[in-house]
Specification:
single chain; about 260 residues; mainly alpha; two-stranded parallel ribbon; two-stranded antiparallel ribbon; 4 strands; about 5% strand
Length: about 260
Amino acid sequence: MPADSVYITIVREPLELFISTFVYMYDLVPSFRVLPQHGKDSVELWLDQAGNFVKEKKHGGFSFFAKSGTFYDFGFDNWNENENYISEAISQIDSIFDLVLISDHMLESLVLLSDLMNWPLKDVACMQVNSQTHKNSLNSTDKIRVREKARRWNKADAALFDYFNATLWKKIEMYGSSRMAQDVVKLKQINENLIDMCVGNKNGVDVSKLKDPNVRRVAYKPSGVSVLGFDLKPNAKNCTYCEQLIIPENAFAAKIFNLQYPK
């Protein structure tokens, strides 16, 4: 890439990430399948015995999702729990990326992205696709207990999140807390306006029930998971901007790839 390229990436809070990974990647990770996909306590029970479940399978298939999957995505050994190794890896990541977004603070992250790239806020407007229609939510007491277990097992991911979450809030402080609060409100309104303009079913429907066969065909459909998708309003079907707003990331990435490499 050219020397003046800007690099961004994103991380997520370890417990929320692991719950999502367990459900979405259930069929792809052999060790997950020892417990029910949607069991009320499956994630906590799995974390209680994680070392036993993955002992023989840590190098098979998609098993990198079972432990510090984000750390693995960055190209590091997700099974190495040496604190110096993790710290040096985070320093290397920090030296590469100009901005690390936090999905748990998405609007604030996008405001910082617009500022970094000198883009208007409307250029980072978005809507959420692929979310589950029903989520097993933990109460606050359970969440504290299970979060600690998720952090212990996903030690590298926890360190990544803590470092870059702190970095994000330092950037927000430099940006100006009042200014950030105002811009978050503005971005929310832009998002809502876009949804009003483009989408008929504003709250989304299960992707299997989408009216548009083209969107339904490319929708992300993980086994055993009901995820939300969106149909365009009739007068928005010829709007490229609206179309790009609702298609899943794999289909969108394919469009970009075909533009870059048409042959």
